[in-house]
Amino acid sequence: MGFGLPIELPPSHVDIATSRSIRRHATPFMERAGKVITFAADEKPLLAGALLYWLYGRASPSSARRIARADHLLACVAVSAALPHVLKLLVARQRPDRKLMHGVPRHGIPYSGDPNASFPSGHAAHLGAIAAGLTRTASPSVAAIGWSFALALAGTRLLLLAHYLTDVLSGLAIGAAIEGMIAWITKRRSPSSA
Length: 194
Known about the structure:
Elements: E1 7-8, H1 13-25, H2 28-37, H3 43-59, H4 64-90, E2 91-92, H5 96-99, H6 122-137, H7 140-159, H8 165-189
Parallel strand pairs: 1-2
Helix pairs in contact: 2-7, 3-4, 4-6, 4-8, 6-7, 6-8
């Protein structure tokens, strides 16, 4: 690619230890269930859901606040769908299912996408953006539930050995940063802030 890219990012000792522990303790049932559940955090259903919510906000008699929330959600999901793909071009990290599964029965662990595109977790980035948006716009109890679901869904990426712990934590942080940046841009561009 040039300019010394992609940057090689080896997993940390904690990443390796966490993935090995998951590999030892995960059951085929857990892995198969994780494979189904993880789809809920994939960019395709999340983009479709955000787009449907955005269309609903436009088509129904909605308040300006609901329309603004729909705009914000769609922007967060769209950016969190694109940015991890860009980062994966810049950073090369072998996925744990390729690095740690040699000669070990895979049970329900599928082969994840590109073998060297572990960092960051795109699923976690989407979830971080949505959960951060709930923190900004919903009640504290709804935000806590949102973050709980985000952490549980992001955990399926660890269970399937698609990502290391730092990939998932970084993805959640990147998603939250995306949401914060979009909120900042939106606030600066709104007529009430001028």
